[in-house]
Amino acid sequence: MLYNLNSYFRIRKPHKFIAFLHFHTCVCGNSGQFNGQEVSYYFLENPLACIGLVAYYSSFLSRTSFASSRGQPAGKGEIDETDDGYGRFRQMGSWDNGDQQDSSFDKFDEAKEFEDDDDDKEVGEDGDGDDDDDDDFMVLNSFNRNGEQREGIGRVELDEDELRHPLVREICRLIELRSAWNPKLEGELRHLLRSLKPRQVCAVLRSQADERVALKLFYWADRQWRYRHDPIVYYTMLEVLSKTKLCQGARRVLRLMARRGIVRRPEAFGYVMVSYGRAGKLRNAMQVLTLMQRAGVDPDLSICNTAINVLVKGNKLEKALRFLARMQLVEITPNVVTYNSLIKGYCDLHRIDDAIELIAEMPLKGCYPDKVSYYTVMGFLCKEKRVKEVRELMDKMVKDSKLIPDQVTYNILIHVLSKHGHGDEALKFLREAEERGFRVDKVGYSAIVHSFCKAGRIDIAKELVNEMFRKGCFPDVVTYTAVLNGFCLEGKVDKAKEMLKQMYKNGCKPNTVSYTALLHGLCRSGKSSEAREMMNVSEEEWWTPNAITYGVVMHGLRREGKLSEACDIVREMIRKSFFPTPVEINLLIQSLCREGKMDEAKKFMQECLNKGCAVNVVNFTTLIHGYCQKDDLEAALSLLDDMYLNNKHPDVVTYTTLIDALGKKGRIEEATEFTMKMLKNGLDPTPVTYRTVIHRYCQTGRVEDLLKLLEKMLSRHSCRTVYNQVIEKLCSFGNLEEADKLLGKVLRTASRIDAKTCHILMESYLSKGIPLSAYKVACRMFNRNLIPELKLCEKVSKKLMLEGKCEEADRLMIRFVERGHISPQCQEHLGT
């Protein structure tokens, strides 16, 4: 035998052995020439047995082929893939059987998980914390100032032609069919994938509405035979993920780049950092700098700007300032982008004066502010209604920074001022822009018109619209709709109708928003039926009502008490796939219950459930409360069972409603059972729950049962005034004996609330003609350093004297004298 089975363990280059095995499985059992000699091949009796060894080494190579990608030369224990033999073996495509590959589409939806690299294991995924992140800033100290910066890939700009390429559109179509996937469609997708250019792959990833689908497609494509992602695809995938909170996916793509030998530029780490920042994991975002250090990538200005921006967005301005100081220590000079991020951070914290001061200091640091620096501060000044300072800052921009206001400057100021309700100031800037030769378009005019309409200044808004016509700047549907809505807000519906006709006359077709504004005005004016008729003829007017339109008319009909028509509106909504919100459903149920139409309300809610509307526990609770108000407790309990059948679990409000209804009927045992069930389900009682339980138990005189139940409720959620409420409620029901027994629990804290409770008990004793008991309550208050009300004690003293208990009366008043609340002369006067 020429070779034995153990010889492959001594072969240092297994990929050559694979080529050898593949060759000999084809000629096993034959004889021929080998190196000029006649040789008979008896390697194995069954040539198919070699396939197992081939598969073994193929999988071995696939697991170790990325060792060299980690920056290490091929050497001991690693594979050198430069040999042409194995390369030709892979090109033969013996296992690349096209659509017959064993990878079902289910794997597309199961994103491949890559294990952590060794250099990543120390970086936790703990999320944001209160720990100081300055340790991560120390990475900048290892920055190689003299290192050569390699050219980066940057952002991949795609043309419209690439986004609309037939291959790109076809792949997007196949991806949309993934719910009905089959091997044939997967084969088509695999075939098309190999025909795509790298930029077209980027176009496919960016075309996905759901970034998670793009990530799954990225993983799926990476697992395909004879396909490898181009570096720009990795960067595009990271860019897509940076706009989401999918930080774990971005981290895995970054690890995969290392495994595939893709050069990882600081931009790649920046994308991961931004994704962590969006997810609120600021600590992990800053630890990306540590990953850069371990990967041997030197930080540059772009990654530093990204770090500062992430800290600013996370409201960590002080850490951003410390990071800036560390940058300067390692001679990374900040630019205007760095300072603009800090300016925005100051503004977000309402430290606008500090932001203005930073703008003034920038020239001293060798970096001059740009217009964005000023625009940021101007916007926040408008937001805080410091409009006068906007003009001062604009003058400073011209004088100090030599930045001449242009068309963009005026447009920004006009829009920001209009947005925050400063229409007059926005109009002044519009006049100034026109004086300087700038032409403000209809968008700027519309913003000012909308601001005046919101403020109820419709006449000025109409003058601006007429001015637009004179200047040849014809208003669009947005401008007209703003004026129309202003008329509706003032209740001038007739003028709003005239404005609608004027829109048609001037060749501007009203849209759904225009009609919705008019319908809202009609409903506010009590003309909901007219609004309903107008919506019925919407198809004739060539406009389509949307969910907001239906909601406006439904609320109008509901407010006018036309509940049947309002329910019909909701049914029509559902037929047209406009589902009402739980709030809208609840308002209608509440109105029906208020009129006692319980069966109609239940039928309406059941219809919403059957049609797939988002009916929640609040809707069920409203209906249960309606049945309880109607004293139909059995129907309310039946509806509770329906909640469980529809997987809607009752909340504390639901239980409180039923406890109150059961207590009202005297069914205290069932009320106790529901209370215990509420506690068992982990629901904390609210103050309303405590008041309900106390009222119903005191009403029936079940004080002992009440106290036992309150102890269990207090163990779940404490209530400071619970025993005060019990005493006051017992006093209202005349059960003074039980109230007096609980007085000790109240006087433990001796607060103002406790004093008020004691006064209520004293007044109850006086009304019952028992002044001695009221005197005892006052004495207990004095013993707890609580001073009872003087006027009330004077009444008690007079009652005691009338009953011949002068000693107790004098002793009570002496207590006030001892504490300096009345003089001895007043005491003698009271005694006489």
Automatic annotation (TrEMBL):
<comment type="similarity">
    <text>Belongs to the PPR family. P subfamily.</text>
</comment>
<dbReference type="Pfam" id="PF13041">
    <property type="entry name" value="PPR_2"/>
</dbReference>
<dbReference type="InterPro" id="IPR051114">
    <property type="entry name" value="Mito_RNA_Proc_CCM1"/>
</dbReference>
<feature type="repeat" description="PPR">
    <location>
        <begin position="651"/>
        <end position="685"/>
    </location>
</feature>
<feature type="repeat" description="PPR">
    <location>
        <begin position="406"/>
        <end position="440"/>
    </location>
</feature>
<feature type="repeat" description="PPR">
    <location>
        <begin position="546"/>
        <end position="580"/>
    </location>
</feature>
<feature type="repeat" description="PPR">
    <location>
        <begin position="476"/>
        <end position="510"/>
    </location>
</feature>
<feature type="repeat" description="PPR">
    <location>
        <begin position="511"/>
        <end position="545"/>
    </location>
</feature>
<dbReference type="GO" id="GO:0007005">
    <property type="term" value="P:mitochondrion organization"/>
</dbReference>
<dbReference type="GO" id="GO:0003729">
    <property type="term" value="F:mRNA binding"/>
</dbReference>
<dbReference type="Pfam" id="PF01535">
    <property type="entry name" value="PPR"/>
</dbReference>
<feature type="repeat" description="PPR">
    <location>
        <begin position="686"/>
        <end position="716"/>
    </location>
</feature>
<keyword id="KW-0677">Repeat</keyword>
<feature type="repeat" description="PPR">
    <location>
        <begin position="616"/>
        <end position="650"/>
    </location>
</feature>
<dbReference type="InterPro" id="IPR011990">
    <property type="entry name" value="TPR-like_helical_dom_sf"/>
</dbReference>
<dbReference type="InterPro" id="IPR002885">
    <property type="entry name" value="PPR_rpt"/>
</dbReference>
<feature type="repeat" description="PPR">
    <location>
        <begin position="370"/>
        <end position="400"/>
    </location>
</feature>
<feature type="repeat" description="PPR">
    <location>
        <begin position="581"/>
        <end position="615"/>
    </location>
</feature>
<feature type="repeat" description="PPR">
    <location>
        <begin position="265"/>
        <end position="299"/>
    </location>
</feature>
<protein>
    <recommendedName>
        <fullName>Pentatricopeptide repeat-containing protein</fullName>
    </recommendedName>
</protein>
<feature type="repeat" description="PPR">
    <location>
        <begin position="441"/>
        <end position="475"/>
    </location>
</feature>
<feature type="repeat" description="PPR">
    <location>
        <begin position="300"/>
        <end position="334"/>
    </location>
</feature>
<dbReference type="GO" id="GO:0006396">
    <property type="term" value="P:RNA processing"/>
</dbReference>
<feature type="region of interest" description="Disordered">
    <location>
        <begin position="112"/>
        <end position="137"/>
    </location>
</feature>
<dbReference type="GO" id="GO:0005739">
    <property type="term" value="C:mitochondrion"/>
</dbReference>
<feature type="repeat" description="PPR">
    <location>
        <begin position="335"/>
        <end position="369"/>
    </location>
</feature>
<dbReference type="Pfam" id="PF12854">
    <property type="entry name" value="PPR_1"/>
</dbReference>
